[in-house]
């Protein structure tokens, strides 16, 4: 009776339902779950099922109502092939109920008044009649409201985690005794502070200190300068300009250019064009071709977006004119070359080198077409052409008016030529000086062989031929006209790459034994016995009398390509392959006084003017930049370097532009030779 009372108390809240299911028939066999009991033979299974059925006690309708499935969250799909649907609280199998066909279900819906609110419990398979409260909950959920009508969604917020001190502690430990006893450590600290005050180590704050505000609220001010010290104000990326009528596939007629405008647009440099395309008209959008510069422009736009830093900074009250260096205006620095005066045609390949005659009436040129040409400066007439076996890489006209000789570097030979274009007396005196050589017993390095030219050598102007062991890339004269140098850029043996020659004694020597680096170019000092030798990374100044290195200049570039010395001899400029032009003041320092970066491609040649304060640089970008370079006699005043003009005219061929440039000896003119096989004179 006690058990029955306890069961009644537990299940007293459940409603009683009529017993709609009957006991399973004796011929229905129950099978256990495959993962709960091992599979055996069919006879054993039948015996087990009979035992289970016999173990199930006979129950009444109330027991069916109190039946609960204890499988938990186990999917019911696992029991679809079994005859039972789970286990009761006593561990007995719950047999699946026998379902009704459509006719029986129809009759049940007609006879049963609660058929509209009857559902089947998936856990037990028994029908369950919904109560009014459950029906109301389902209706509220269908309407999108809260299931319980007594729930208030707008109830006042209850701060469960508050900063207020709890009245009752979480731990009910007794208060320790040290809470009521004065701390000896605090006593020591207080006594230490009292002793410091008595000794004067700690002074009370004065009125001045009280007036100073040590702490302030950084958010209490609206000054934008205060917030700029904390975080930088980033600027959004600039948006691209919207397309206009000219970019339409069917633009208005006034936006379509004429043939003259198209030809003018093609002749203009890309950086000077107002727009990088020519407006065209198409019948439909399908006939518009792909824009070939789309990928390059998109890529450049992406680079601008993530490589260019954009930050908003507060404007300083500084006059912009004070930030610009005080340089004179170019019109105040005239004269200097500004326009193209003449174009000399005749060469069929790259013109490597040009050189003026001392008076400026004639000049010589040589190029890759294996020809050496003599030109008249004022008329552009080619007066003589000498055909050689190999390309001419360098020419140098002797700047001594009493010596009328030209050096030609072609292959491994250096030819000494008497052009015969000046007065007959000077030409005859030059030939007499060349033939006055008398063989002596003085020893030489025997590296260079001197040979006199005969009439059978190919040209009557050639006087001497110097045969070198390497290909010669540059020749240069000394100011007196008796010495000259030849240089080879062969990297196999750099110590045997620079040769000094004496014309009167026909003697050659290679006195630069240990040259660190690969020689690139060389030049003599205008007045002193100094020799400048430029390697890839440095420029060494040799004292020819003492046979030692006097100075070492550091241009701070990757590859020196050319060098020029000021007529006074105290300043040097160097051009490099990494688009830098460095100016050295040798009296000041061995480091560059100024570095110019005006070119966009490698610098091929640099040159000083002999009379005017001008110097020029020729580059592979097809331009010649003329600068004003004034050197003062006052040692306390620095040189004045001002770019004044960019001369354009040469075309870039195979990434090569202007190969050489030279100033006129007397006039502010500059002569340039380029890879487009032309020579141009700017005046």
Beta strand count: 35
Helicity, as a percent range: 10-25%
Structural class: alpha+beta
The shape, in one word, is elongated
Rg from Cα: 52 Å
Uncertain spans: 1-64
Q: Order of strands side by side in the largest beta sheet?
A: 12-13-14-16-15
Characterize the largest beta sheet: strand count, sense, and whether it forms a barrel.
Answer: 5 strands, antiparallel
Q: What proportion strand?
A: 25-35%
Average per-residue pLDDT, rounded, comes to: 81
Count of DSSP-assigned helices: 12
Distance from N terminus to C terminus (CA atoms, Å) equals 131 Å
List the helices and strands and how they pair.
Blueprint: H1 2-10, H2 42-55, H3 61-65, E1 84-87, E2 93-95, H4 102-111, E3 118-120, E4 127-129, H5 132-142, H6 184-199, H7 207-211, H8 224-228, E5 233-234, H9 259-267, H10 294-307, E6 311-312, H11 320-323, E7 340-345, E8 351-356, E9 362-367, E10 371-376, E11 382-387, E12 392-397, E13 406-410, E14 413-417, H12 424-435, E15 449-452, E16 462-467, E17 474-477, E18 483-487, E19 498-502, E20 507-509, E21 521-524, E22 530-534, E23 539-543, E24 548-553, E25 560-565, E26 571-576, E27 581-585, E28 594-596, E29 603-608, E30 614-619, E31 623-630, E32 640-648, E33 658-663, E34 670-674, E35 678-682
Antiparallel strand pairs: 1-2, 3-4, 5-6, 7-35, 8-9, 9-10, 10-11, 12-13, 13-14, 14-16, 15-16, 17-18, 18-19, 19-20, 21-22, 22-23, 23-24, 25-26, 26-27, 27-28, 29-30, 30-31, 31-32, 33-34, 34-35
């Amino acid at each position: 009776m006690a058990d029955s009372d306890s069961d009644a108390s537990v299940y007293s809240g459940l409603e009683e339902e009529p017993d709609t299911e009957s006991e399973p028939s004796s011929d229905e066999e129950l099978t256990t779950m495959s993962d709960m009991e091992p599979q055996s033979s069919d006879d054993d299974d039948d015996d087990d099922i009979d035992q289970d059925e016999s173990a199930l006690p006979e129950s009444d309708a109330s027991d069916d109502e109190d039946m609960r499935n204890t499988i938990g969250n186990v999917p019911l799909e696992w029991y679809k092939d079994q005859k039972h649907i789970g286990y009761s609280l006593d561990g007995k199998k719950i047999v699946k109920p026998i379902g009704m066909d459509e006719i029986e279900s129809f009759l049940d819906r007609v006879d049963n008044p609660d058929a509209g609110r009857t559902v089947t419990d998936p856990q037990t398979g028994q029908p369950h009649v919904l109560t009014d409260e459950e029906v109301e909950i389902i209706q509220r959920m269908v309407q999108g409201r809260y299931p319980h009508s007594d729930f208030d969604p707008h109830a006042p917020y209850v701060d469960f985690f508050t900063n207020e001190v709890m009245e009752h502690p979480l731990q009910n430990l007794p208060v320790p005794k040290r809470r009521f006893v004065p701390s000896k450590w605090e006593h020591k600290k207080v006594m230490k502070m009292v002793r410091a005050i008595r000794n004067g180590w700690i002074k009370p704050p004065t009125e001045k200190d009280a007036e100073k505000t040590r702490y302030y609220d950084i958010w209490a001010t609206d000054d934008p300068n205060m917030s700029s010290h904390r975080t930088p104000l980033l600027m959004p990326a600039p948006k691209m300009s919207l397309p206009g009528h000219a970019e339409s596939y069917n633009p208005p007629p006034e936006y379509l250019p004429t043939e003259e405008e198209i030809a003018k647009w093609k002749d203009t440099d890309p950086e000077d064009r107002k727009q990088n395309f020519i407006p065209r008209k198409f019948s439909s959008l399908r006939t518009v071709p792909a824009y070939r510069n789309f990928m390059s422009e998109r890529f450049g736009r992406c680079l601008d977006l993530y490589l260019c830093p954009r930050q908003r900074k507060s404007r300083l009250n500084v006059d912009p004119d004070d930030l610009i260096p005080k340089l004179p205006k170019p019109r105040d620095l005239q004269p200097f070359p500004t326009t193209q005066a003449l174009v000399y045609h005749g060469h069929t390949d790259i013109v490597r080198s040009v050189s003026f005659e001392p008076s400026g009436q004639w000049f010589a040129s040589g190029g890759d077409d294996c020809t050496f040409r003599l030109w008249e400066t004022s008329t552009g007439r080619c007066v003589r052409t000498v055909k050689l076996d190999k390309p001419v890489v360098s020419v140098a006209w002797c700047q001594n008016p009493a010596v009328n000789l030209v050096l030609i570097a072609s292959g491994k030979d250096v030819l000494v030529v008497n052009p015969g274009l000046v007065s007959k007396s000077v030409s005859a005196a030059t030939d007499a000086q060349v033939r006055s050589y008398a063989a002596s017993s003085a020893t030489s390095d025997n590296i260079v062989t001197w040979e006199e030219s005969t009439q059978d050598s190919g040209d009557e102007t050639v006087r001497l031929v110097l045969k070198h062991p390497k290909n010669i890339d540059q020749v240069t004269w000394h100011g007196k006209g008796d010495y000259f140098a030849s240089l080879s850029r062969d990297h196999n043996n750099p110590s045997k790459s620079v040769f000094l020659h004496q014309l009167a004694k026909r003697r050659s020597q290679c006195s630069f034994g240990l040259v660190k680096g690969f020689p690139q170019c060389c030049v003599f000092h205008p007045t002193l016995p100094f020799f400048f030798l430029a390697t890839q990374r440095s420029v060494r100044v040799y004292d020819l009398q003492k046979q030692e290195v006097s100075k070492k200049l550091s241009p701070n570039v990757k590859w020196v390509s050319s060098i020029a010395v000021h007529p006074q001899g105290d300043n040097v400029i160097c051009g490099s392959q990494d688009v830098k032009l460095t100016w050295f003041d040798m009296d000041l320092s061995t480091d560059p006084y100024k570095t110019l970066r005006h070119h966009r491609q490698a610098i091929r040649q640099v040159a000083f003017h002999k009379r005017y304060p001008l110097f020029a640089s020729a580059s592979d970008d097809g331009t010649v930049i003329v600068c004003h370079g004034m050197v003062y006699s006052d040692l306390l005043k620095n040189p004045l370097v001002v770019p004044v003009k960019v001369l354009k005219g040469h075309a870039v061929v195979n990434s090569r532009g202007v190969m050489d440039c030279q100033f006129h000896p007397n006039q502010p003119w500059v002569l340039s030779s380029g890879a487009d096989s032309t020579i141009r004179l700017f005046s």
